[in-house]
Amino acid sequence: MTVSTATNHTSDPVSLGRDRYQAMADRVLGGESISRDEALSILKTPDDEVLDLLSAGFRIRQKHFGKTVQLYFLMNAKSGLCPEDCHYCSQSKISTAPVPKYNILKRDDLMEAARLAAERGAKTYCLVISARGPNERELSAVEQIVPEIKEKYNLDICACLGLLSREQADRLKACGVDRVNHNLNTSEDHYADICTTHTYADRVDTLRNVRDAGMEMCSGGIIGMGETHDDVVSMAFDLRDLGVQSIPLNFLNAIEGTPLQGNSDLSPQDCLRALAMFRFVAPDRELRISGGRELHLRSLQPLGLYVANSLFVGDYLTTKGQAPEADYDMIRDLGFEVTKSTC
């Protein structure tokens, strides 16, 4: 009897890791959900298995989004002057960062930003104000400008205005806002460590008001604020269970003058693991690589798009992004394509 000396690939420790991610992807593609323990294991993936993890995650991304990338454009319509104490934010009342401070911009400025968003190939124009929530003047300004932007530039509109009541959410829906951004930012357990002027429950209530008004919910978080892996996983499951359609994942830009200055020590692999975990937990949700990607992913930014399917093009609220041309080149080099507006 002759015994084969060929090695079965499943006995190879490297292959075992690769097969585990693919088996997990098979289950997700078959309609199953991964467990919290499995999500935690993704965040603990060894560096030399990250490419295997991304390969498995790409199969999930491709099923739901193909090779498309959606572009978003951020407009800081009101800067600084915020009464909240969010520790990561350069616009908060406790920040000493030298950021611009101005009330909500005039119509012409908001329309010019919309023109630039359309010119850059963005699908969605994100209108953001720094505030606990909008006052009547700010809400009225949004109600007036949104129909004009949509008619002239055929852009989807995402409003980020702080905490919202159901009545305010209904007004945003009525004027044509497509979705509202209100990030959970971190887990419920960790929330009091990054903000004391409002609660995690306040943010969840706003998302429910947005949902009940008939708009899409955009909500994500920030990685690198001293949270544990358990915190990141809890946030991912909460976002999934709330039915959030769009998840922006930020990586802390520890701005000097904020309480979290100097706190972030993320590696590119940490960012990729987090993005992959969100893709496995919320397979059919839009996943956006958001603030801090240039700082933390650096030359590995293209790898993030193997699991994420959208980007902000241009600058963020108070920090600079890379040149739009670099994003276009990255998307083209990957063999992906930009999704246009569906308005």
TrEMBL record:
It is an enzyme of class 2 (transferase). One of its GO terms (biological process) is biotin biosynthetic process. InterPro entries: Aldolase_TIM, BATS_dom, Biotin_synth/BioAB, Biotin_synthase, Elp3/MiaA/NifB-like_rSAM, rSAM, rSAM_sf. [2Fe-2S] cluster binds at residues 126, 158, 218, 288. It catalyses: (4R,5S)-dethiobiotin + (sulfur carrier)-SH + 2 reduced [2Fe-2S]-[ferredoxin] + 2 S-adenosyl-L-methionine = (sulfur carrier)-H + biotin + 2 5'-deoxyadenosine + 2 L-methionine + 2 oxidized [2Fe-2S]-[ferredoxin]. Residues 64-293 form the Radical SAM core domain. Its cofactor is [4Fe-4S] cluster; [2Fe-2S] cluster. Belongs to the radical SAM superfamily. Biotin synthase family. This is Biotin synthase. It comes from Rubripirellula amarantea. The gene is bioB.
